[in-house]
Design brief:
globular
Length: about 425
């Protein structure tokens, strides 16, 4: 055990998880690569949990942070803040929500907390619809709407949460149905659920479930849900903390795959927009955002430094068409991984979009989740010079692949080759 690992264990909660048998200290990064304290170089296919969205040490972002820090680091939302207003203007326009208002937080968890506060206040209801296998953060209220028991340490809650079918396409009672039938069955389940309860405040859903293993419904499910929700006056919150900013390649926001009936009422974001800086936020229709009748501010949300980073990062993303790169390079990578998966008895499914790819592992000859194999592949990939993540529903048996969106084709090929060898090493 390293000295730093020993010190970490002495002062950190037991539930603060670390990857790897011998945990890694990352000391610096550049582009799509990082280095550890021993000087080993790794191709990064996880980006600090989908947060290093463009590249490590992106000059445009580091320059913006340095220049802003040299002027003023902090002021709070009690004062006018030019970078915050400029980033809010850009996000409001990009969101697709009419008459949008933007509130910045420091994390996706806090963004979802804010969305829940808005929805329950606006609707005068503490009931929330959430998806099975979902994850929305680690706070008391976010944990209470998380439909993944591996990330929900308490059943106590200020909310009454009702879980809906549909977030997982290839498991569960409707997995055998075709896409159209699957959507119809999920809509019928939602209609039935609403017939047994008081009217909820909102449905919160990740268009592609992140921690749940990059699962998603057929396109159009949430548009079909929206028709039911609108009849009941129920708001739709799209949790875009992991799916936003073009990561899926096909769309800038995950909700756009379900946009037939318009944008969500509330959209939450975080992670990639800051490229490592602590930015989260909420976009909502003006009447929803303005429904609070008590004072509220944010001490650290919208700080001048993080807003400068977000502006520089968003500009780089758009000017270099990283959404298009995610579509092109991600398409190549997923096909390469599907070919590799077809040769492995451990691989049940390779799924995803753009640079958001999941490899679900099972025990050979069964449909049973295989978290031991996922842990072993994680270790083997590290030994080969590749960092990936893991997640999943009932068991953590999905390899999560989410490189920076600037990933080059040779790097995609290199990562796929390392993963192929890692999968072979565990059978």
């Amino acid at each position: 055990m390293s000295s730093l690992h020993h010190r970490h264990l002495a002062v950190s909660p037991e539930w603060l998880a670390l990857y790897y048998r011998n945990p890694l200290e990352i000391t610096h990064g550049e582009g799509r690569h990082v280095w550890d304290a021993d000087g080993n170089r790794y191709l990064d296919f996880f980006g600090g949990i989908l947060t290093t969205m463009t590249a490590h040490a992106l000059p445009e972002v580091t320059k913006a942070v340095s220049e802003q820090a040299g002027r003023i680091i902090h002021s709070s939302t009690l004062y006018l803040n030019r970078p915050m207003v400029e980033l809010a203007e850009r996000i409001a326009t990009l969101s697709g929500i009419p008459e949008a208002r933007v509130f910045f937080t420091t994390s996706g968890t806090e963004a979802n907390d804010t969305a829940l506060l808005l929805a329950t206040t606006y609707r005068r209801s503490n009931q929330i619809l959430a998806m099975r296998n979902s994850y929305h953060g680690r706070s008391f209220s976010a944990v209470s709407i998380t439909g993944n028991n591996a990330w929900s340490p308490t059943s106590l809650s200020p909310l009454q949460t009702l879980y809906v079918h549909g977030g997982v396409r290839t498991r569960g009672p409707y997995a055998h149905l075709g896409d159209g039938e699957f959507i119809a069955a999920c809509v019928a389940d939602l209609e039935d659920l609403l017939g047994h309860t008081r009217s909820p405040a909102a449905l919160i859903a990740e268009p592609i479930q992140g921690v749940g293993g990059f699962t998603s419904p057929p396109d159009g499910l949430y548009a079909a849900f929206r028709e039911v929700l609108d009849r009941h006056g129920i708001l739709w919150i799209s949790d875009e903390v992991q799916t936003g900013w073009g990561r899926s390649g096909e769309h800038f926001w995950g909700w756009q795959a379900h946009g037939r009936n318009g944008p969500p009422d509330i959209l939450t974001f975080a992670k990639g927009i800051g490229n490592g800086m602590s930015i989260g936020g909420v976009v909502a229709r003006a009447d929803v955002m303005n429904c609070l009748d008590a004072n509220s501010i944010s001490t650290f949300g919208g700080s001048p430094v993080t807003m400068a980073a977000g502006l520089a990062n968003l500009s780089y993303l758009l000017e270099h068409d990283l959404q298009g790169n995610a579509r092109r390079v991600g398409g190549l990578l997923i096909e390469r991984l599907r070919a590799i998966g077809a040769a492995s008895e451990c691989v049940r499914e390779v799924r995803g979009r753009g640079l958001m790819i999941g490899i679900e592992l099972v025990k050979p000859g069964t449909d049973e989740a295989n978290p031991e194999a996922a842990a072993a592949v994680l270790e083997a990939a590290r030994e080969g010079g590749l960092l990936i993540g893991k997640g999943g529903g009932h068991d953590t048996s999905v390899l999560r692949i989410a490189p920076p969106l600037s990933l080059a084709i040779p790097e995609a090929e290199e990562g796929a080759a390392i993963l192929a060898e890692a999968l072979r090493s565990v059978g």
